[in-house]
């Protein structure tokens, strides 16, 4: 780093410490209340619970619980207070507390599900599947059950594909493009662990079954300073803890996937284990069920240990393994285009909420590894491995409506890959470290500000990166507002990138590596503006416009030789779009209609030194999602129709053979074979046909004394649309996406 740059950042840690220390004296003389709110049945943390205290004069001091169910109230003057915790669908909890000068108290609150019939408007609010603001969608587990899958269980992947701006090129391969970003520009976290390939080979499924999900914060852009080293999106999934009261579990059987979940209380009310196992069966029964082969095998294993060490601290350890293998392109020769990848991830967290301080502390270590193999032909196998380890320590000042979050982090990543196609194999290591600071400020009941700053440095010789961030929410009439406005802005950097060979078309083989120093670090600027309006207690309309300005992206250069690359070039990109969503939530009817209008353009020297402007292969201009769910007694009918305009591709004009230059007197030149070359048209000027499909699921729930059973009848691609997945321009072979697939599944659960 240059000397002036070093002087520029030398005082940064001191500034952060000073900022963190400012609020403490102002509140240290008054009382403080901290605690955790959980579900009284399985001790699952409840996020978004409204907690407040009210003094004798009627003045209130309140906040909401975070993703772990924790809350903190400070500045409580000596006196008597009434404490209340309320959450939709649960009985409220009330207690009387008395605080003396400087006293600190901690509460463990367990809410029980409401046993009385709720008012209609309350039920409608509970039916709303997610909360949205400026690029962020917070998804509760109950929303995942709305999306029909060829399986009686549910998965986060199916729900993500109903969000406008989320593009998957097919129903296999596990690729997800978010508002103009590529899959390698998405940061995917499971309990803080980085998952490099989070989606299974069949696109309905991810490493996140609904049975283990406590919440999912999905940022299509505009994410805060706690997230880094990605420039497009963040999918932050938190898992729930196992039941600490009794043994529970579930087992399901279906044509695509069979599952097993088990929850054990090792020490009642204190220690639990949650285990989940999923295994595909479609590759074994598809010839009899469909009359054709679906050569895909996949599954995952999940294990979580959680313990309350005492009233103020907890510890958790998480382990995840996934496996995928199959012939994605459906080639007749099983020795060609065969992909295999495996994820392994582990993590441990220690959380401490002391009784004598206004600071919540979390220390964590994580590790993850992706091993990927791809066999293009019987003699051409490629490999890509990435192994990552990181540690972090986070501090949170929870001062009523004001929150300050500060974190220090560092890690190391090892890359080892051979991309093939003329690109030399590489092996390297990169270390990084930095700090972030975020604040949540509410200067009034109408306005919330969330500024942030992230500083990160790398060992690869690049300069440190500084990413300021800002999120804003405005309620014109405070909590009584029927509409809200949201803004988000930020600068983002990504030192770790993924290389793919665009000529492989449908493959997911990706080589992760550090960005080439000569190209500069990829960076992006996000601008998001959103508006939501509740038209009626049961009807809501939301609009969101966005711009992502992308710089220093690596993109493959086409070669005239078959199955080879000239290398990678640097391009800039611009993604723009407008997402519209209309949502209806009634006690027996839920409906959602979403439309996404988008345009993604790249600019750079794609074929020669001259700059070209083109649409990349994930530029889907129009998207429509229509979801209807009707509930009648124990029956539930769900229909999902999806439409996507055609994706760009490069046409092949023809092939030619070039003979080697030889000695005119060499007679063997007359019989020597030449080299086949390909002539391509304008890059990505042609488009595939539009994609659309209807999925249907009918579920019936049976309740018994000690168990519950769900039976589901489903149809994937109900009108058997022949959506193209891949067309091999070299062989003329067309591969379609999944045809009409009937399914019958059964799930039995011990509640």
Mean pLDDT: 82
Helix count, DSSP H or I runs of 4 or more residues: 7
Given as residue ranges, the uncertain stretches (5+ residues, pLDDT < 50) are 1-28, 116-130
Binned, the helix content reads under 10%
Q: How would you describe the shape?
A: globular
Span between N and C termini?
Answer: 58 Å
Describe the structure.
The chain is mainly beta and 751 residues long. 7% of the residues lie in helices and 56% in strands. The chain has 7 helices and 46 strands. The strands form 9 sheets. It has a 22-stranded antiparallel barrel. A 6-stranded mixed β-sheet has the order 8-9-14-15-12-13. Strands 3-2-5-6 form a 4-stranded antiparallel β-sheet, with no helix packed on it. A hairpin with a 6-residue loop joins strand 25 (426-440) and strand 26 (447-458). The longest helix has 10 residues, at 12-21. The protein is globular.
Give the tags.
mainly beta, 22-stranded antiparallel barrel, 6-stranded mixed beta sheet, 46 strands, globular, disordered N terminus
Briefly characterize the structure:
By secondary structure, the protein is mainly beta. A hairpin with a 4-residue loop joins strand 44 (724-728) and strand 45 (733-736). Residues 1-28 and 116-130 have low confidence and may be disordered.
Topology:
Blueprint: H1 3-10, H2 12-21, H3 23-28, E1 31-39, E2 50-55, E3 60-64, E4 70-76, E5 79-86, E6 93-99, E7 104-111, H4 120-127, E8 131-133, E9 136-139, H5 141-144, H6 156-160, E10 166-167, E11 177-178, E12 186-190, E13 193-194, E14 213-219, E15 233-239, E16 248-253, E17 257-267, E18 271-280, H7 282-290, E19 296-310, E20 313-327, E21 338-352, E22 359-377, E23 380-399, E24 402-418, E25 426-440, E26 447-458, E27 465-474, E28 483-493, E29 496-499, E30 511-514, E31 523-536, E32 539-558, E33 565-585, E34 589-604, E35 612-614, E36 622-632, E37 635-644, E38 648-649, E39 652-658, E40 675-680, E41 686-687, E42 691-703, E43 708-716, E44 724-728, E45 733-736, E46 741-750
């Amino acid at each position: 780093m240059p000397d002036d740059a070093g002087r520029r950042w030398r005082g940064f840690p001191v500034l952060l410490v000073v900022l963190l220390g400012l609020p403490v004296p102002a509140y240290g003389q008054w009382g403080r209340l901290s605690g955790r709110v959980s579900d009284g049945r399985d001790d699952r943390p409840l996020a978004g619970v409204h907690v407040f205290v009210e003094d004798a004069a009627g003045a209130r001091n309140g906040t909401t619980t975070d993703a772990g169910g924790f809350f903190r109230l400070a500045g409580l003057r000596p006196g008597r207070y009434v404490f209340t915790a309320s959450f939709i669908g649960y009985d409220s909890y009330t207690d009387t507390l008395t605080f003396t000068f400087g006293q600190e108290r901690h509460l463990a609150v367990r809410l029980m599900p409401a046993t009385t019939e709720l008012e209609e408007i309350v039920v409608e609010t509970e039916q709303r599947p997610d909360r949205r603001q400026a690029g962020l969608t917070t998804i509760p587990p109950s929303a995942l059950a709305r999306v029909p899958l060829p399986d009686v269980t549910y998965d986060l992947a199916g729900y993500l594909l109903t969000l406008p701006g989320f593009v998957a090129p097919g129903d296999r391969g596990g690729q997800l493009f978010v508002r103009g970003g590529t899959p390698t520009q998405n940061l995917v976290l499971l309990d803080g662990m980085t998952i490099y390939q989070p989606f299974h080979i069949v696109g309905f499924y991810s490493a996140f079954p609904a049975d283990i999900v406590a919440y999912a914060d999905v940022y299509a852009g505009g994410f805060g300073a706690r997230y880094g080293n990605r420039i497009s999106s963040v999918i932050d999934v938190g898992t729930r803890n196992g039941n600490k009261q009794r043994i529970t579990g579930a087992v399901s059987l279906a044509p695509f996937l069979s599952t097993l979940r088990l929850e054990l209380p090792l020490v009642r009310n204190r220690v639990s284990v949650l285990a989940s196992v999923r295994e595909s069966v479609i590759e074994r029964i598809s010839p009899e069920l469909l009359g054709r082969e679906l050569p895909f095998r996949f599954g995952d294993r999940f294990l979580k240990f959680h313990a309350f060490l005492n009233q103020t601290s907890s510890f958790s350890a998480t382990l995840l393994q996934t496996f995928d293998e199959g012939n994605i392109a459906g080639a007749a020769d099983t020795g060609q285009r065969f992909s295999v990848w495996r994820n392994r991830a582990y993590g441990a967290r220690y959380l401490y909420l002391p009784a004598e301080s206004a600071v919540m502390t979390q220390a964590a270590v994580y590790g993850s590894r992706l091993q990927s193999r791809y066999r293009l032909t019987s003699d051409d196998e490629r490999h890509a491995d990435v192994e990552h380890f990181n540690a972090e320590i986070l501090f949170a000042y929870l001062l009523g409506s004001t929150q300050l979050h500060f974190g220090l982090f560092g890690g190391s990543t090892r890359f080892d890959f051979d991309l093939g196609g003329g690109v030399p194999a590489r092996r390297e290591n990169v270390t990084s470290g930095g700090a972030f600071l975020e604040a949540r400020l509410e200067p009034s009941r109408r306005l919330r500000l969330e500024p942030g700053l992230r500083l990160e440095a790398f060992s690869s010789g690049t300069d440190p990166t500084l990413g300021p961030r800002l999120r804003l929410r405005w309620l014109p009439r405070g909590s009584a507002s029927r509409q809200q406005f949201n803004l988000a802005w930020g600068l983002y950097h990504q030192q770790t990138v993924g290389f793919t060979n665009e000529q492989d078309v449908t493959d997911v083989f990706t080589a992760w590596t550090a960005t080439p120093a000569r190209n500069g670090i990829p960076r992006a600027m996000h601008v998001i503006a959103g508006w939501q309006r509740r038209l009626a207690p049961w009807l809501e309309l939301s609009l969101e416009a966005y711009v992502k300005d992308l710089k220093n992206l690596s993109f493959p250069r086409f070669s005239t030789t078959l199955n080879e690359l000239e290398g990678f070039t640097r391009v800039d990109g611009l993604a723009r779009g407008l997402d519209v969503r209309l949502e209806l939530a009634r006690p027996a009817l839920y409906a959602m209609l979403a439309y996404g209008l988008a345009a993604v353009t790249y600019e750079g020297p794609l074929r020669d030194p001259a700059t070209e402007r083109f649409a990349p292969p994930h530029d889907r201009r129009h998207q429509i999602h229509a979801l209807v769910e009707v509930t009648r007694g124990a029956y539930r009918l769900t229909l999902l129709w999806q439409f996507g305009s055609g994706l760009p591709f490069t046409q092949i004009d023809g092939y030619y053979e070039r003979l080697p230059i030889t000695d005119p007197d060499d007679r063997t030149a007359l019989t020597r074979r030449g080299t086949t070359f390909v002539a391509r048209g304008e890059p990505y000027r042609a488009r595939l046909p539009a994609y659309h499909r209807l999925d249907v699921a009918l579920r019936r729930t049976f309740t018994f004394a000690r168990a519950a059973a769900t039976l589901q009848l489903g149809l994937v691609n109900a009108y058997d649309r022949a959506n193209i997945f891949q067309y091999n321009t070299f062989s003329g072979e067309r591969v379609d996406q999944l045809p009409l697939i009937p399914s019958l599944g059964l799930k039995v659960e011990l509640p």
